Amino acid sequence: MPADDLLGDLLAVSMTGVIYYTPIYDPAGAGEIVDFRFEYLNPTAQRMMSMPEVPTVTHNEQWPHSIAHGTFAFHVDAYVSGEPREYNINYQADGYDNYYRLAARRSGDGLWVSFTDTADQPRSPVEVALRDAQVREKAARAEAEIQRQRFYEVLMQLPAHVAVHEGPEQVFTFVNPGYQRVANGRELLGQPIRTVWPELAGHGILDILERVYQTGETFSAASMPVQADFTRTGQLEEVYYDFFFLALRDAQGQVTGVLNFSYDVTSAVRARQQVEQLNQELETRVQERTAALQESESRFRIMADAAPNQVWAVNPDSTIRYANQAFLDFVGVSLEQYVATGWSAYLPAEELELAQATLETAIRTRTLYVLEHRMRRHDGQYRWLLAQGAPSFYANGELYGYVGSAIDITELKQTNEQLRRTNVDLDNFIYTASHDLKQPIANIEGLLHAVQHELAPQCRVGEVPHMLKLMQAAIERFGRTIGHLTEISRLQQEHNQPASHVLLAQVVHEVELDMAPLVARTRARVEARIPADVTLNFSEKNLRSVVYNLLSNALKYHHPDRAPRVSITYTPLEDQHMLAVQDNGLGLDVAQDREKIFGMFQRLHPHVEGSGVGLYMVRKIVENAGGRIEVESTLNQGATFRVYFPR
């Protein structure tokens, strides 16, 4: 059998791993071997290394740490010397952790390496147990190192000051950045603490550290004052620290050093001292303020008792604080009795809930308090009172209570009621008189027409035609005046027209249709920009009257030199609807005629036909519904009327 075949069979059955390398030289040409190329691995080597017969990687690529472990140098030496070499190694790198025995010898241009791996051989129970113990020990050491490193990182990152002092001299063996900063450049590591901080010798801190080292007892203290030369200028500075000193022990339990853990709490201590000082000052001011308040309240009660009207004061919870003598005389009890019973015993049951709710709402919103209510006088008669009050505050803005007064308005309400009845009677009279005068006026107008019909043409000479014309005009004005009086009287009687949800755009459109002849006659352009879905909670009849009067005035009082332009717009407000009617007509002198604009029978442009009651009626309608009307105008330029309807 040929020798090559015999070698191949031998390598195939060999129980040791065999590798054949060829050297890789330095490309710079220095002749130095920098790596080896795999040319062949026998089956055992392939199995033990989990590699193919001809790997594509190089020796150093497979084992990057072989240079550091010496195995690469072993291969180079065997090749260069040409002599057999052996090498034993516990290789723990690049994913391997086994004992290897290597034998190498050069053959021609290549290098044969035979190796054994203990992991490939059966191990005795003792060896297995030993290796398991070594693995566990290694894992434990690694875990301990991880924990130590974590603890070290925590200590280094803590905002506190951490140091370790070892031995009887308390020598610094560890300091974190926080401690280094407070040391301000002092040399720490390897130095005894008494050498580093000589100024602490008289403050007891060093003695405490010594006691912890000697006894092993833990020490802790909060906000402990310390005086030291932190700036290294020779000046001692007092600061406050929270201290924690812990004895460190070895495996036998003997104290070897002290862990110094401290935290600068100077800011907190001084802030607390400042707060305590401020509290003391505040308490003094409160006492002074209380005395001043008592004196002020005493003066207030003296003045209130001298007042003819009723004066009262309540606490923020609406309980009675004080009532003056006039109030007590009214109800006929002492202050103690009134405070004990409260005002509920003196108000009618049907008015008590409203009165209490009104006062509580004013207190909650810090607003003025105004209310008319009845209250039982000492003789048992219920009298009408007008009560009003305002919030009173301490200097710091806290609510002190409500102070107010009340006056008896019973006679005033009776007088107003009589006046209201008189006004009703007057309205009824006006309505009746205007209604009854319509027929006589119609009769006079009929008689005038009859006279004109019967009067012969030859008699219509001189001033007769003019006089007849004046009589006809006077009758027409009289009729219009009677009609306006009737309308105004009706408005007074029907101001509480039932409200409903009315589409504003629809009402404006209908009024535009009614005004179409006047629009055409004046060649006006009317633009209404009102969303179709806007609704007002208003009497539809009264809303039509408002829009009609404003639009008709804008057209009637147009400027003779230009065609009328009228804009009707809507603007939603937070708690109101605003309707604006703007024109380019004659305008008004608002500053001069403000009081006349909405007056009854007031006409600011006499040359234009009108009665002077339209704007008066508009204002009455709007104000009766809780709204208001405003005007903005410039004479000869136009006017804008804005009507605000409540939501």
Strand order of the largest sheet: 2-1-5-4-3
By CATH, the superfamily of the largest domain comes out as Histidine kinase-like ATPase, C-terminal domain
CATH architectural label of the largest domain: 2-Layer Sandwich
The structural class is: alpha+beta
Count the domains: 4
Estimate what percentage of residues fall within beta strands: 25-35%
The helicity comes to: 40-55%
Task: Give a quick precis of the structure.
By secondary structure, the protein is an alpha+beta fold. It has 4 domains: 3-117, PAS domain (Beta-Lactamase), CATH 3.30.450.20; 150-271, Beta-Lactamase (2-Layer Sandwich), CATH 3.30.450.20; 415-483; 496-646, Heat Shock Protein 90 (2-Layer Sandwich).
What features would you describe in this structure?
By secondary structure, the protein is an alpha+beta fold. It has 4 domains: 3-117, 2-Layer Sandwich (Beta-Lactamase); 150-271, 2-Layer Sandwich (Beta-Lactamase); 415-483; 496-646, 2-Layer Sandwich (Heat Shock Protein 90), CATH 3.30.565.10. It is 45% helix and 27% strand. The strands form 5 sheets. The chain has a 5-stranded antiparallel sheet with strand order 2-1-5-4-3. Helix 18 runs antiparallel to helix 20 (614-624). The longest helix has 45 residues, at 410-454. The model is unreliable at 601-605 (pLDDT under 50).
Write the layout of secondary structure elements.
Blueprint: H1 3-13, E1 17-25, E2 33-41, H2 43-49, H3 59-62, H4 66-69, H5 71-81, E3 85-93, E4 96-107, E5 110-117, H6 125-157, E6 161-166, E7 171-175, H7 177-183, H8 193-196, H9 205-215, E8 219-228, E9 237-249, E10 255-264, H10 266-306, E11 310-314, E12 320-323, H11 325-331, H12 335-341, H13 349-365, E13 369-376, E14 382-393, E15 399-408, H14 410-454, H15 464-493, E16 500-503, H16 504-514, H17 516-522, E17 525-529, E18 535-538, H18 540-556, E19 565-572, E20 576-583, H19 590-597, H20 614-624, E21 628-634, E22 638-646
Parallel strand pairs: 17-19
Antiparallel strand pairs: 1-2, 1-5, 3-4, 4-5, 6-7, 6-10, 8-9, 9-10, 11-12, 11-15, 13-14, 14-15, 16-18, 19-20, 20-22, 21-22
Helix pairs in contact: 14-15, 16-18, 18-20
